[in-house]
Amino acid sequence: MRTYLDCLPCFLRQALEAARLATPDENIHRKVLNRGMVVLSEASLTSPPPETARLVYRAIKEATACGDPYRELKLKYNRIAKGMYPRLKELVARAEDPLLAAARIAIAGNIIDFGVGSDFDLEGALSEAMASEFAIDDYSRFRESLAGTKKVLYLGDNAGEIVFDKVLIEVLGKNGRHITYGVKGQPVINDCTLADARFVEMDKFAQVISDGSDTPGTILKLCSPEFVAAYRGADMVICKGQGNYETLSLAKDRSIYFLLKVKCPVIARDLGVSIGGIVLKKG
Amino acid sequence: MRTYLDCLPCFLRQALEAARLATPDENIHRKVLNRGMVVLSEASLTSPPPETARLVYRAIKEATACGDPYRELKLKYNRIAKGMYPRLKELVARAEDPLLAAARIAIAGNIIDFGVGSDFDLEGALSEAMASEFAIDDYSRFRESLAGTKKVLYLGDNAGEIVFDKVLIEVLGKNGRHITYGVKGQPVINDCTLADARFVEMDKFAQVISDGSDTPGTILKLCSPEFVAAYRGADMVICKGQGNYETLSLAKDRSIYFLLKVKCPVIARDLGVSIGGIVLKKG
Question: In this predicted complex, what is the ipTM?
Answer without folding.
Answer: 0.91
